[in-house]
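Hi L.,

As promised, Sulfite oxidase:
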Amino acid sequence: MKSFHSDTMKPTLKTLKLIPENKETPIHFLRNWITPSEYFYRRNHFKYPEITPQSFLLPIYGHVEAPLVFHHSYLKSMPSKKITMVLECSGNKRTYFEPKAYGEQWEDGAISHGIWKGVTLKSLLDMVVVKHGAKEIVFIGHDKGTRTDMEGIFHYARSLPIDVALQPDVLIAYELNGSTIPYEHGYPLRLIVPQWYGMASVKWLKEIQIIDHPFKGPFQTVDYVYYPHKANDLDARPVTNIKINSIIQQPLDYSILDTGTHEICGIAWSGHGSITTVELSFDNGSTWIKAKLSVDPKQKYSWTFWRYLWNVQKKGEYTILCRAEDSSGNVQPFEAEWNKKGYGFNAVYKVHIKIE
């Protein structure tokens, strides 16, 4: 059996942009259950913020009975929780949309898998006592800058519906993979929202505001919205949970291999449940063969590794298709739902192989 992984070479992050810094995880060359922190993808809208003493204070105010300011050290003294989860940019795989969508042309690496530790957001909201009639929780980051489509200085800010914010696994995190959150990933405090695309997990958390009306910030109502029509904004809806998805890590697209047995391996994930099936097709989808899954049933927000041993004796060109299904019955479609901003690409994955 041929192996596609080397123990002597080390991959690197792939740079899409330096300012603001946007870099992909070398996802095709990692078989780590937990993505090492140095290989976590980086998605920024602005330059990195300056860390000051104010950065260690977290005010929670607004539609509450008892507004409070929490210090970083106090949060670390509270009962903690760990969550192992997929973190994926909603623009992951944007480059595959046809017609093309404007934005960072992510390929497969705007995704990582880590262990986050912090306090539950619910425990903090219980302390400030959210008033009746609260509708959304707004999370404002320290990172700020200008936009090309409107005037002014904007902080990165997003909101969650109150029912989502109160879910027991939403965290105010201060650790990643057993160490302090790296500066590049939101130090000292970051919101962590399992099963939602990464735009919800606000970095460098500055303040939390409870409101009794819909939040209208540009990263809520302009960006991170599915616009299914090119000519207008009809049928727009917000980007929320991660769609069912998968990739073939190895072999790489347009690889040249010899005859024999090869391991085809990859990852599958979903924000709507656990992965139940991964299938491969070698005849353009006429028939499908199940791959072997590697699942941790205790980690409900984790990705799933899969593998299949492919014995090929006939020379020629092949297209290998891959699709996943989750516990909610979602199956990867043959075509992703096109949208103007290029979010949520999750079409059946394919690689082209030549056997010589």
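The domain at 245-355 is CATH 2.60.40.650 (Immunoglobulin-like).

Thanks again for sending the construct details.

K.
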